[in-house]
Specification:
With 284 residues, this protein is of the alpha+beta class. It has one domain (2-60, 105-275): Clam (outer membrane lipoprotein receptor (LolB), chain A), CATH 2.50.20. It has 5 helices and 12 strands. Strands 7-8-9-10-11-1-2-3-4-5-6-12 form a 12-stranded mixed β-sheet. A hairpin with a 4-residue loop joins β4 and β5 (116-123). α2 packs antiparallel against α3 (92-98).
């Protein structure tokens, strides 16, 4: 009983600081993601931009960099008064943009004022998107601690969507947020990983800017070739799998001994195997 009282008092004091010391925070994470059971994990830099505990954005740094390069490239093409924009993979700008590969194709916006989030993720020849309430995460705090980027961080445990996670949060940074959908701890999450280490988010740098400049357009509006499919959090994985349909394959290349339908089916299955180990294994 006494330990519970101390914990509640700690949360109360932290909540007061949280509400009065709202600040802008920009965190860079190194994200390790093993999206496939067949292929090795990859790493990619991500940014978490937090605007005074009101709104945050979790997005690939590579996506932002390549996006800026391509925008400048196409703006230059438009300014040339050309009636038809011809893109070549040999153009220096295209080569440079392709160096910044966005493999973990996910963007998450959290709105803390209305406890709402919006997620968009790249699927096969499309993007899936849904809006939902911020998840209610049943964190279990421990007294273990260590140092990350000069901050004393505390340990917390979580079971979420079929995985067991260990998080390390910094009470000194009064921001109840973290990478991906993770939030709700009394301090900024600087590291979190699942028990299999398939997904590992590690902070590599922190800034406290006077102002957070969110990108103008970080959610794709979609197009004829790459539509945005509206779904729900509950149906996301089912709809994600549905996008891997041979009918969505563009092109009619035929190999000797195989017809186009066989070729398309093989291609789809190969690409689908790149995404058979999602971070969310269930809806629990």
């Amino acid at each position: 009983m006494k330990s519970n009282c101390k914990f509640l008092l700690f949360l109360l004091i932290w909540a007061i600081e949280y509400s009065t010391l709202a600040q802008n925070v920009k965190v860079e994470y190194q994200v390790k993601a093993k999206q496939s059971l067949k292929y090795p994990a990859f790493t990619e830099p991500f940014l978490l931009m937090i605007d005074k505990n009101v709104k945050s954005l979790f997005i690939s740094k590579n996506k932002l960099i390549s996006g800026k390069i391509l925008k400048k490239y196409y703006d230059k093409k438009m300014a040339s008064n050309s009636h038809k924009i011809v893109t070549s993979f040999s153009d220096p700008e295209i080569i440079q943009a392709r160096k910044y590969k966005n493999k973990y194709k996910i963007v998450i916006e959290k709105n803390f004022s209305d406890h709402h989030l919006k997620l968009q993720q790249g699927a096969f020849m499309s993007k899936l998107q849904y809006e939902a309430d911020l998840p209610k995460l049943n964190w279990q705090l421990t007294d273990k601690q260590k140092q990350i980027l000069g901050y004393t961080v505390m340990q917390a445990k979580l079971h979420y969507k079929g995985r067991d996670f260990t998080a390390w949060y910094a009470p000194a940074i009064a921001v109840s947020d973290g990478p991906y959908k993770f939030w709700g701890l009394p301090g900024l999450i600087l590291e979190i990983y699942d028990s299999k280490n398939d997904y590992h988010f590690t902070a590599t740098g922190i800034e406290f800017p006077d102002k957070i400049n969110f990108p103008k357009e970080y959610f794709s509006k979609g197009s004829t070739l790459m539509p945005v499919i509206q779904t729900t959090e509950q149906n996301f994985q089912k709809d994600f799998n549905k996008t891997f349909n041979p009918e969505n394959v563009i092109g009619t290349t035929v190999y000797i001994g195989k017809n186009s339908e066989e070729m398309k089916a093989e291609r789809v299955q190969k690409i689908k195997s790149l995404y058979n180990n999602p971070i969310e294994l269930s809806n629990d």
